[in-house]
Specification:
By secondary structure, the chain is an all-alpha fold. The protein has two domains: about 60 residues, no CATH class; about 290 residues, no CATH class. About 75% of the residues lie in helices and about 0% in strands. The protein has a two-stranded antiparallel sheet. A hairpin with a 5-residue loop joins β1 and β2. The radius of gyration is 51 Å and the shape is rod-shaped. The termini are far apart.
Length: about 400
């Protein structure tokens, strides 16, 4: 053991001497740094001594490149790398994976339900019954977009062998029923638009526009009637009842709603046409009256009377669905006010033609009072003309 220690000391001493010699050689070649390397030589000797002492104590020592001792790790200081448990990752579907047949059916059913949600997304509607012919903001395109999405999913599902084709056919029947429902809704809305155009033009005294709108109303009503027949013939109650938000009772009430609107559109055209002719005659009579051509005014006003009395009577006999109730009531009120007021205006014209000014004025005032029973009448341009005489 003593010999080993001495040998190690001898080796270290030689190493220290080598380091010292190296420093001395560098001093000779680099004269500018002589003093610094002499100090280093002394440090190296001290280091060698410290190293020998540490070696005696049994530590494993090696000398680094600068001559400074560095303790080398033994097997006791070696550490195994720590491992951390990684959570298991749930495999995600890649972009190339296709939905399963069951997922296709689920998506189709969702799209069908969404089509009804979009269907009722108008005017604060809570159900399909709240969407009537007057719902001109009805978004047909949005509803059909969802139906198209359902069809795409069903076509794809039908190509999957594991899918029960009966499930596909059942959802196709639901989609076809909604298609019929939408087509019928659009048809009655189209008819309503022409009804609205006719009524608006009537009180704007645009008589040719009224005639054009009534012609299109008749055409659109015929289309709506045909579509309603198709709806009743091709749609089974359970098909629509399979959709969220539609019950069997709602289906039947919806059929009744369509039927009532189509019937009303079929009946309302003729009275409005009669009303249009009466109002055109009234307009001419007012022109004559204001021009103080009382004889001509009386005759023209007499001719216009049937255009108020007959429509008021005929419109009163129409079963009015909710979508048309207020509009038809307004037409009836206007026709009745014009009929009553024009009776007095005829008498006023007769008195004017006979130069009975006081009587003419009294009858004229009575006519104005009757006309004022209807807001639609007081908005007429002809009424404003009459007021210029008062």
């Amino acid at each position: 053991m003593t010999g080993d220690r001495l040998s190690r000391r001898r080796v270290l001493a030689i190493a220290a001497a080598t380091v010292t010699a190296g420093c001395g050689a560098q001093n000779n070649s680099d004269s500018d740094a002589g003093g610094r390397f002499e100090e280093d030589s002394g440090n190296a000797s001290a280091t060698a001594t410290a190293t020998a002492t540490s070696t005696e104590e049994g530590s494993s020592i090696e000398i680094n490149r600068e001559g400074t001792p560095t303790e080398t790790e033994t097997e006791s200081t070696a550490r195994e790398p720590e491992t951390t448990e990684q959570p298991e990752e749930t495999p995600e579907r890649t972009e190339t994976e296709m939905p399963t047949g069951a997922e296709r059916l689920e998506r189709a059913e969702q799209a069908l339900n969404e089509s009804i949600t979009v269907y009722t997304d108008v005017g604060g509607a809570d159900s399909i019954l709240d969407v009537d012919a007057s719902a001109t903001a009805f978004d047909e395109a949005a509803v059909r977009e969802r139906l198209s999405a359902a069809t795409t999913e069903l076509d794809a599902a039908a190509d999957v062998p594991a899918v029960d084709q009966g499930d596909v056919d059942e959802l196709r029947a639901v989609g076809a029923a909604i298609e019929e429902l939408v087509a019928c809704q659009v048809a009655v809305i189209d008819a309503y638009r022409e009804f609205d155009r006719a009524e608006t033009a009537l009180f704007d005294e645009e008589f040719d526009t009224v005639s054009d709108a009534l012609s299109k109303l008749e055409l659109n009503t015929s289309k709506a009637a045909s579509q309603l027949s198709s709806f009743e013939r091709n749609v089974e109650t359970e098909d629509l009842a399979a959709v969220d938000g539609i019950t069997e009772r709602e289906y039947q009430v919806k059929v009744d709603q369509f039927s009532g609107e189509v019937d009303a559109f079929e009946e309302v055209g003729s009275p409005i046409d009669e009303f249009n002719q009466g109002l055109e005659g009234f307009n001419d009579g007012v022109d004559s009256y204001v021009g103080k051509d009382y004889g001509s005014a009386r005759q023209r006003l007499l001719d216009s009377q049937n255009g108020f009395e007959i429509p008021a009577n005929d419109l009163s006999g129409i079963a009015r669905p909710r979508s048309l109730n207020g509009r038809i009531e307004g037409l009836i009120g206007a026709a009745e006010a014009l009929a009553a007021g024009t009776d007095h205006l005829i008498d006023s014209s007769k008195a004017g033609n006979e130069d009975k000014e006081q009587e003419r004025q009294s009858d004229f005032n009575d006519a104005i009072q009757e006309y004022q029973r209807s807001g639609a009448v007081t908005n007429l341009e002809s009424y404003d003309q009459l007021l210029s005489e008062s």
